[in-house]
Amino acid sequence: ALYDSSMHWFGFGFNGFGQISPADVSGQIVKCEVNTPVLLSEMCRACVIRSDCRVRGSWSSRADVHHSDCGYVTPKPPFFRPLRSDLCAVSLALGSEHAVLLTSDGTVYSWGSGSHGQLGHGALTSQEEPQVLEALWGVPIRAVSAGNWHSASISTGGDLYMWGWNESGQLGLPSRGLEEGKLRGKRNTEQPINEDEKKQADVFISIQAFPALVDVPDVLEISRISCGSRHTAAVSGTGDLYTWGWGHYGQLGHGTENSTDEPTLVDYFASHRMCVKDVVCGLWNTFVSAVPKEQPPSRQE
Prior knowledge:
about 300 residues, mainly beta
Protein backbone atom coordinates (compact mmCIF):
# COMPACT_ATOMS: atom_id res chain seq x y z
CA ALA A 1 0.00 0.00 0.00
CA LEU A 2 1.23 3.51 -0.78
CA TYR A 3 1.01 6.58 1.39
CA ASP A 4 -2.12 8.65 0.69
CA SER A 5 -4.07 11.48 2.27
CA SER A 6 -5.77 9.17 4.77
CA MET A 7 -2.46 7.89 6.16
CA HIS A 8 -1.02 9.53 9.27
CA TRP A 9 2.45 9.06 10.74
CA PHE A 10 3.38 9.26 14.42
CA GLY A 11 6.63 9.08 16.37
CA PHE A 12 7.54 8.79 20.04
CA GLY A 13 10.64 8.15 22.10
CA PHE A 14 14.20 9.46 21.74
CA ASN A 15 14.31 12.75 19.80
CA GLY A 16 17.88 13.85 20.49
CA PHE A 17 18.59 14.53 16.81
CA GLY A 18 15.14 15.72 15.77
CA GLN A 19 14.11 12.33 14.37
CA ILE A 20 10.52 12.91 15.47
CA SER A 21 10.12 16.68 15.66
CA PRO A 22 12.31 19.80 15.82
CA ALA A 23 10.53 20.66 19.07
CA ASP A 24 11.04 19.07 22.50
CA VAL A 25 8.50 16.24 22.51
CA SER A 26 9.83 14.05 25.31
CA GLY A 27 7.32 11.40 26.32
CA GLN A 28 4.70 12.47 23.77
CA ILE A 29 3.19 10.77 20.74
CA VAL A 30 3.67 13.26 17.92
CA LYS A 31 2.08 13.36 14.49
CA CYS A 32 4.82 13.60 11.85
CA GLU A 33 4.42 15.50 8.59
CA VAL A 34 5.23 13.29 5.58
CA ASN A 35 5.14 14.94 2.17
CA THR A 36 6.78 12.19 0.10
CA PRO A 37 4.95 8.99 -0.93
CA VAL A 38 6.34 6.04 1.01
CA LEU A 39 6.06 2.33 0.31
CA LEU A 40 4.78 0.67 3.47
CA SER A 41 5.92 -2.87 2.70
CA GLU A 42 9.35 -3.89 4.00
CA MET A 43 9.57 -0.71 6.06
CA CYS A 44 12.63 -1.46 8.16
CA ARG A 45 16.21 -0.48 8.82
CA ALA A 46 17.51 -3.76 7.49
CA CYS A 47 17.11 -4.20 3.78
CA VAL A 48 15.33 -3.76 0.48
CA ILE A 49 14.06 -6.88 -1.26
CA ARG A 50 13.81 -7.06 -5.03
CA SER A 51 10.95 -8.74 -6.85
CA ASP A 52 13.29 -11.56 -7.91
CA CYS A 53 13.76 -12.54 -4.22
CA ARG A 54 17.35 -11.35 -4.04
CA VAL A 55 18.63 -8.97 -1.38
CA ARG A 56 19.16 -5.69 -3.22
CA GLY A 57 20.59 -3.60 -0.44
CA SER A 58 21.17 -3.94 3.27
CA TRP A 59 22.27 -1.63 6.03
CA SER A 60 22.37 -1.25 9.78
CA SER A 61 22.22 1.71 12.13
CA ARG A 62 25.99 2.05 11.72
CA ALA A 63 26.36 1.71 7.96
CA ASP A 64 25.26 3.20 4.68
CA VAL A 65 23.34 1.27 2.03
CA HIS A 66 25.42 -1.36 0.23
CA HIS A 67 24.03 -2.70 -3.02
CA SER A 68 24.18 -6.36 -3.94
CA ASP A 69 22.46 -8.61 -6.46
CA CYS A 70 22.84 -12.01 -4.83
CA GLY A 71 24.12 -11.66 -1.29
CA TYR A 72 24.73 -9.33 1.60
CA VAL A 73 27.44 -6.83 2.46
CA THR A 74 28.69 -6.13 5.97
CA PRO A 75 30.44 -2.92 7.04
CA LYS A 76 33.79 -2.16 8.72
CA PRO A 77 35.32 -3.18 6.39
CA PRO A 78 32.67 -4.00 3.77
CA PHE A 79 32.96 -7.40 2.15
CA PHE A 80 30.70 -9.57 0.05
CA ARG A 81 29.34 -12.92 1.25
CA PRO A 82 27.09 -14.75 -1.23
CA LEU A 83 23.93 -16.43 0.00
CA ARG A 84 23.49 -20.10 -0.82
CA SER A 85 21.78 -20.58 -4.15
CA ASP A 86 18.89 -22.46 -2.51
CA LEU A 87 18.02 -19.52 -0.21
CA CYS A 88 15.37 -17.37 -1.90
CA ALA A 89 15.31 -14.40 0.46
CA VAL A 90 12.17 -12.36 1.00
CA SER A 91 13.21 -10.49 4.16
CA LEU A 92 16.39 -9.78 6.08
CA ALA A 93 16.58 -8.18 9.54
CA LEU A 94 19.85 -6.96 11.05
CA GLY A 95 20.54 -6.66 14.75
CA SER A 96 23.61 -5.14 16.34
CA GLU A 97 25.69 -8.29 15.80
CA HIS A 98 23.40 -10.79 14.09
CA ALA A 99 21.15 -11.32 11.08
CA VAL A 100 17.79 -13.07 10.66
CA LEU A 101 16.71 -14.18 7.19
CA LEU A 102 13.26 -15.28 5.99
CA THR A 103 12.99 -17.35 2.81
CA SER A 104 10.11 -17.67 0.37
CA ASP A 105 9.00 -21.00 1.86
CA GLY A 106 8.62 -19.47 5.35
CA THR A 107 11.86 -20.84 6.82
CA VAL A 108 13.98 -18.72 9.19
CA TYR A 109 17.79 -18.66 9.20
CA SER A 110 20.11 -16.72 11.49
CA TRP A 111 23.83 -16.11 11.86
CA GLY A 112 26.31 -13.81 13.59
CA SER A 113 26.89 -13.40 17.31
CA GLY A 114 24.85 -15.62 19.61
CA SER A 115 26.11 -14.15 22.90
CA HIS A 116 22.59 -13.31 24.11
CA GLY A 117 20.70 -16.19 22.50
CA GLN A 118 19.60 -13.91 19.66
CA LEU A 119 20.20 -16.59 17.01
CA GLY A 120 17.59 -18.92 18.52
CA HIS A 121 19.62 -22.11 18.15
CA GLY A 122 19.57 -22.99 21.85
CA ALA A 123 23.16 -21.99 22.58
CA LEU A 124 25.17 -18.80 23.07
CA THR A 125 27.69 -19.60 20.35
CA SER A 126 28.14 -17.66 17.13
CA GLN A 127 27.46 -18.85 13.58
CA GLU A 128 29.42 -17.70 10.54
CA GLU A 129 26.93 -19.08 8.02
CA PRO A 130 23.10 -18.93 7.85
CA GLN A 131 21.69 -21.75 9.97
CA VAL A 132 18.04 -22.80 9.99
CA LEU A 133 16.07 -22.30 13.22
CA GLU A 134 15.14 -25.89 13.92
CA ALA A 135 12.77 -24.86 16.73
CA LEU A 136 10.54 -23.22 14.10
CA TRP A 137 10.79 -26.10 11.65
CA GLY A 138 7.34 -26.85 10.27
CA VAL A 139 5.95 -23.47 11.37
CA PRO A 140 5.56 -21.26 8.27
CA ILE A 141 6.83 -17.77 9.09
CA ARG A 142 5.83 -14.61 7.23
CA ALA A 143 7.77 -11.85 9.01
CA VAL A 144 10.98 -11.41 11.01
CA SER A 145 12.57 -8.58 12.96
CA ALA A 146 15.79 -8.08 14.92
CA GLY A 147 16.65 -5.76 17.80
CA ASN A 148 20.16 -5.21 19.08
CA TRP A 149 20.28 -8.59 20.82
CA HIS A 150 16.79 -10.04 20.44
CA SER A 151 14.74 -11.39 17.55
CA ALA A 152 11.11 -11.95 16.62
CA SER A 153 9.00 -13.69 13.99
CA ILE A 154 5.32 -13.97 13.07
CA SER A 155 3.82 -17.19 11.74
CA THR A 156 1.34 -17.27 8.87
CA GLY A 157 -1.31 -17.92 11.53
CA GLY A 158 -0.43 -14.71 13.39
CA ASP A 159 1.48 -16.28 16.30
CA LEU A 160 4.40 -14.31 17.75
CA TYR A 161 7.72 -16.01 18.57
CA MET A 162 10.61 -14.23 20.30
CA TRP A 163 14.09 -15.12 21.49
CA GLY A 164 17.34 -13.57 22.71
CA TRP A 165 18.09 -11.08 25.49
CA ASN A 166 15.30 -10.19 27.92
CA GLU A 167 17.10 -7.82 30.29
CA SER A 168 14.41 -5.13 29.92
CA GLY A 169 11.47 -7.44 29.23
CA GLN A 170 11.77 -6.90 25.46
CA LEU A 171 10.72 -10.51 24.81
CA GLY A 172 7.44 -10.10 26.65
CA LEU A 173 8.64 -12.68 29.18
CA PRO A 174 9.22 -12.20 32.94
CA SER A 175 12.33 -10.07 33.55
CA ARG A 176 14.22 -10.29 36.81
CA GLY A 177 15.46 -6.71 36.60
CA LEU A 178 11.97 -5.29 36.21
CA GLU A 179 10.51 -7.44 38.99
CA GLU A 180 13.30 -6.48 41.40
CA GLY A 181 12.75 -2.83 40.49
CA LYS A 182 9.08 -3.13 41.40
CA LEU A 183 9.93 -4.71 44.75
CA ARG A 184 12.56 -2.05 45.51
CA GLY A 185 10.00 0.64 44.74
CA LYS A 186 7.54 -0.87 47.20
CA ARG A 187 10.22 -1.13 49.87
CA ASN A 188 11.16 2.53 49.37
CA THR A 189 7.52 3.59 49.74
CA GLU A 190 6.90 1.13 52.60
CA GLN A 191 4.11 -0.58 50.66
CA PRO A 192 3.37 -4.16 51.77
CA ILE A 193 4.95 -6.98 49.75
CA ASN A 194 3.11 -10.28 49.80
CA GLU A 195 4.71 -13.71 49.44
CA ASP A 196 3.30 -14.24 45.94
CA GLU A 197 5.18 -11.18 44.69
CA LYS A 198 8.41 -12.48 46.21
CA LYS A 199 7.94 -15.81 44.47
CA GLN A 200 7.22 -14.10 41.15
CA ALA A 201 10.53 -12.27 41.41
CA ASP A 202 12.28 -15.66 41.36
CA VAL A 203 10.60 -16.68 38.08
CA PHE A 204 12.38 -14.79 35.33
CA ILE A 205 14.07 -15.20 31.97
CA SER A 206 17.32 -13.36 31.27
CA ILE A 207 18.19 -15.11 28.00
CA GLN A 208 15.77 -17.11 25.87
CA ALA A 209 17.97 -19.12 23.50
CA PHE A 210 15.05 -20.87 21.74
CA PRO A 211 12.03 -19.18 20.11
CA ALA A 212 9.25 -18.80 22.68
CA LEU A 213 5.56 -18.33 21.87
CA VAL A 214 4.56 -14.95 23.32
CA ASP A 215 1.01 -14.29 24.43
CA VAL A 216 -0.39 -10.82 23.77
CA PRO A 217 -3.50 -10.36 25.94
CA ASP A 218 -6.82 -10.18 24.09
CA VAL A 219 -5.10 -10.56 20.69
CA LEU A 220 -5.83 -13.46 18.36
CA GLU A 221 -3.41 -12.50 15.59
CA ILE A 222 -0.29 -10.38 15.19
CA SER A 223 0.15 -8.73 11.80
CA ARG A 224 3.32 -6.62 12.24
CA ILE A 225 6.36 -6.77 14.51
CA SER A 226 9.39 -4.53 15.01
CA CYS A 227 12.27 -4.65 17.48
CA GLY A 228 14.18 -1.67 18.83
CA SER A 229 17.37 -1.80 20.85
CA ARG A 230 15.61 -3.13 23.95
CA HIS A 231 11.91 -2.69 23.18
CA THR A 232 9.38 -4.31 20.88
CA ALA A 233 6.21 -3.15 19.13
CA ALA A 234 3.50 -5.27 17.52
CA VAL A 235 0.34 -4.55 15.56
CA SER A 236 -2.68 -6.79 16.06
CA GLY A 237 -4.88 -8.08 13.27
CA THR A 238 -7.50 -5.52 14.33
CA GLY A 239 -5.10 -2.57 14.05
CA ASP A 240 -4.18 -2.06 17.72
CA LEU A 241 -0.60 -1.28 18.80
CA TYR A 242 1.12 -3.09 21.67
CA THR A 243 4.57 -2.29 23.06
CA TRP A 244 6.85 -3.65 25.77
CA GLY A 245 10.47 -3.61 26.95
CA TRP A 246 12.68 -0.65 27.88
CA GLY A 247 10.74 2.62 28.11
CA HIS A 248 13.27 5.16 29.38
CA TYR A 249 12.75 7.58 26.47
CA GLY A 250 8.99 7.10 26.21
CA GLN A 251 9.42 4.79 23.22
CA LEU A 252 6.61 2.53 24.45
CA GLY A 253 4.02 5.26 23.94
CA HIS A 254 2.32 4.86 27.32
CA GLY A 255 2.99 8.41 28.49
CA THR A 256 5.64 7.34 31.01
CA GLU A 257 9.29 6.29 31.04
CA ASN A 258 8.45 2.99 32.72
CA SER A 259 9.62 -0.32 31.31
CA THR A 260 7.42 -3.42 31.19
CA ASP A 261 7.77 -7.09 30.32
CA GLU A 262 4.07 -7.38 29.50
CA PRO A 263 2.75 -6.52 26.01
CA THR A 264 0.60 -3.46 26.70
CA LEU A 265 -1.96 -1.69 24.53
CA VAL A 266 -1.01 1.84 23.43
CA ASP A 267 -4.22 3.65 24.32
CA TYR A 268 -3.51 6.71 22.18
CA PHE A 269 -4.50 5.11 18.87
CA ALA A 270 -7.55 3.34 20.23
CA SER A 271 -8.81 6.51 21.94
CA HIS A 272 -8.30 8.52 18.73
CA ARG A 273 -10.06 5.83 16.68
CA MET A 274 -6.95 5.14 14.60
CA CYS A 275 -6.24 1.79 12.94
CA VAL A 276 -2.50 1.09 13.02
CA LYS A 277 -1.20 -0.29 9.73
CA ASP A 278 2.52 -0.61 10.41
CA VAL A 279 5.18 0.04 13.04
CA VAL A 280 8.95 0.50 12.90
CA CYS A 281 11.23 0.74 15.92
CA GLY A 282 14.41 2.76 15.95
CA LEU A 283 16.95 2.00 18.63
CA TRP A 284 15.15 4.13 21.24
CA ASN A 285 12.06 5.39 19.43
CA THR A 286 9.01 4.11 17.59
CA PHE A 287 7.25 5.19 14.40
CA VAL A 288 3.70 4.25 13.45
CA SER A 289 1.53 4.62 10.35
CA ALA A 290 -2.22 4.67 10.95
CA VAL A 291 -5.50 5.53 9.26
CA PRO A 292 -8.80 6.64 10.78
CA LYS A 293 -11.09 3.75 11.64
CA GLU A 294 -14.14 3.48 9.45
CA GLN A 295 -17.24 4.82 11.13
CA PRO A 296 -20.05 2.28 11.42
CA PRO A 297 -22.97 3.12 9.13
CA SER A 298 -25.70 5.03 10.90
CA ARG A 299 -28.94 3.17 11.44
CA GLN A 300 -31.86 4.35 9.37
CA GLU A 301 -35.09 4.90 11.27
